[in-house]
Every structure is written in structure tokens, then in C-alpha cells.
Amino acid sequence: MRRIRAVVRGTAVALLLGLVAACAPLPSGGGQAAGPSGPADPNAIFGWAHIVGLSRFDPHRATSSYDNTFLFLTYDRLVHVDKDLNPVPGLATSWRFSPDGRALDLQLREGVTFHDGTPFDAAAVKANIERAKTVEGSSVRNELASVQSVDVTGPLAVRLTLSTPNAALPLILSDRAGAMVSPAAFDDPDLDQAPVGAGMFRVASYQPQAKIEYRRVDGYWDPAAVQVAGVDMYVYVDPTTRLNALRTGKIDGSIISAEQVPEAEAAGLRLERGRSNNFYFFHPNRSRSEFGKLEVRQALAHAINRKAIVDSVFRGYATVSEQPLPGWSFAHNPDLPPEPHPYAPERARQLLAQAGLPNGFAFEALVPSSPDSIRIAEAVQADLAAVGVRMSTRVMEGQQLTDVFFARKEGDLLMGSGGGRADPAQMTALRYLPTGFNNPGGTSTATIERLQQEALATTDQAQRAEIFRRMMQEVSDQVLDGVLFYPESPVATTSQVIGFDPALSDRPEFRGVSKAAAS
């Protein structure tokens, strides 16, 4: 077990806050460097550095939303999303619910083949969804639980018969549950190393936790999406390594740390403020340690100084919030304050005493190994120590954490980032329902379970928004999560990059990205 040193408050924090004032925020879409001056080079390789590695290449068993960046380059999905997370056609060209909401009919795209030559058709969709529901270790089984059967209604048509209405299903099919694997590769023991999809690129080389080389697939159904010969994905946990790779031209884009913005500007890089529906959190297993007690969860929420963390670690490139849905989501509850449990150490001590823990308690937190995550954990550790709560830590590689905490159910609490999904009902089901994969303790409330059913039973957006707002109130009242803030990390690209959209900066898809030809 590794213990993180406590952050030293006082002078050090004051110096950090001084740096904040000197670091002006980036405008959305703003940048310093001039745009590319030449035409796009169709033979270029686009390089990107990701901050965490891939858990596995089997999309139905992958365990992190960060995996999507790696997976969706080579696995296409039935449904795609636009930059505001609205569903748009993918391998399915259209879809429609039956009048009673208990069936979803999909019309499929013609002329698509998997990378191994297997045809994409209704039979392949049926096989994929049935596999996603039943394969050992499936991380999407619960998201597809409402799918009772998959019927082939034509060569390019399928009907998903539902046991209960599920309005989230189209957007669920835009995520890993809707990723299509070649049926011929289902039983391939090398699938986790050698994926076989129908996406824009095939995997040419895979060095786990280091580098993945993707190369263009000729004849992809959306040629406008494929404007480069390939994408090289590097895994650089260290932000200094990412910035150096950008400055030397080894990569073309990456998220950087807020404190690196002046260096990036001086190097002539273009900068944009990213956007995310992922959030940083301290997520308790509510069946372990003392976390089953509401007063304890409330105490921890009051003990943490979120704004100080945002200012010192992220230099203001984040939005403080306790709500697990961002402010730009239709499902966000605007009536909740950003911090329903504001920083109040004395109140935290009172709540611990009410819980029968006047001397505090001890627990173990799992923490990612990235520098920013460790700094956040240090700050939280110090805040909790100030109210008598002793947090020991186990630092692990990010791709291991989700398996250990959610699948193996080790550790009392997980610190990290994630949570965002295409449809809000995916997130609430995963984190707050008894069967949710991201709810290792299996605890919930009757209100959450009832509201989740209501959110799935209607496709009316206004009705769903009101239901989610009530659900967010329940999550807040019961402190079912420990949301800290939403990152708005700076995204840096070289001046040669064309058409990169950082709409969801921590899970980019690179559709339509290109590079200017060298002059």
C-alpha cells in the first residue's frame, strides 16, 4: 500500500493561488497560433496522446468510459452522437420505437463489412447484442437488460423486443453496448489484443499501455470522416511528456495541464478549452467502511474544499459541482446549488459525532497514478485529516482501477474521473441502481429506482428532464456520490491540425480530423 503525503496548506497554496491570477482562462475555441496554411495531406498520420491506457480491446467487456477513444476508432457503433450528445445515424440509418415503447426497430446500413470480410447485417447485430448481454465479464449487460430478444426482420432490419420501455436505448447503442464486433472473432482468444470491427481504422500494431497504431480502412461508409492515413495513439500519463511530444512534433494533439498553458502558447501551439461530461469524484462503496451512514457521507462532502482544489491543481480550468450531470445537459437540475454541501469542516465534525464517530475513522482509497489525480488525492487526504478521517491510499494504473474497484470490489472508495455517458439514464443506472456495474456495494434508494423506471418509460425530453431533476435531488440528499468538479482541460494541437473538435475532450473520436501538408 502506498500512502500519499499530505498537502501542505498555507504558503504553498497561497503561491499556487497567485499563479491562478496570472493565468488567464482560455476562451472557448480560442487559440494563439495561426491556422494551417496548406491543403490537407491524405497520407498524414495523426498523433494523439491519451492520459490513460486501454483496459481491453473487447468493447463488451471494457470497463472504462476512457476506453471509448481507443475502441471507437476501430469498432463502429449502431448509433453515433453529435457534439451535444444527440443520437445520429451510424451503422443504423434509422430507428423507431413501437407505440407502446416495448420494441425498437432499427434499419441498418447497406454494404458494410467487418475488417475480416464478414458482412455486417441483421444477423451480425443480433449476434452482437446477444453476446454483449451474455459474455462472461460483460460490463454492458445491465445496460441491455431491458432487451428481451433480438429478432431479424429483414436482411438489414432488426427488432429489439423489450421487457420494459427504455427511452435511453438509442444512446446506449451509441456507446460500448452498440459497438459491433465481427461475429467470426467472438471466440478468438486474441480479441483483447487484435480487435476486429467495422470502424474507420484497423489496428496495425498494439503495445499495451504504450502505443496503438491505427491505419485507414478503404471503403468506410463515411469517407468524410477519414481524412488521414492513420492515427497513432500514445499513452502518456505524465503531462510533461505530453507537452514535450507536442513541441517536438511527435504528436499533433493532447490534453495538457492548466499550468502548462503559458509554455504551450510560447511554443506556438493552438489551445482550446475542453468540455466534458466526465467528472472528478471520490466514489464510496456504500457497503464498506462507514459509508453506509448518511451522516458520514455528508461529513465527507462538507470536509472537502473543492474550490481550493480547482484553483490549485487545475488553475481554474474546471467547474465546481456536486451534481453528476454537467450544466449543459438537459437533465441537469438548475435548482441545486453547485455545492449543496459547502466546505464546512466544523459541520463535518458534528456529523461524524452524530454518526457515533467523534474520533473519525480510517478507510482505503484507490487512486490513479496520474500526477493530477495524485495531487487531488493529496488535497482530499489533507482535508479529511483535518476533521479526523484517515484516508490511506493504494495508487494504481488507471486502467486497473475500474477492474479492482467495480469488478473485484476491492477498496473502500475510488478517487478518479469518469461517469459521463451518452444518455443520463446510463450514468444513473451504472452508479445508483442496485445492479449497476459502478455500484459495487449494490445499495440504492426506493426513490432512485422508481425515478429510473420513469425516466426510461417516456421518450418525451421535457418529461425526462423533470424526472432527472428529481433524481439529482435524491442523489444530493442521500449523498450517493462524491462529485468534486468538471474539468475543462486545455486541449493543445499543433498549427498543422485541421478539423479537430474538442467537444468531449477526454473522449475524442477524430472524425474528419486532418493535417496540412508540409510546405
UniProtKB/TrEMBL annotation:
Domain Solute-binding protein family: 86-428
Highest rank taxon of the organism: Bacteria
Annotated Pfam families: SBP_bac_5
InterPro entries: Peptide/Ni-bd, SBP_5, SBP_5_dom
Segment forming the signal sequence: 1-33
Keywords from the named record: Signal, Transport
Family the UniProt entry places it in: Belongs to the bacterial solute-binding protein 5 family.
Protein name per Swiss-Prot or TrEMBL: ABC transporter substrate-binding protein
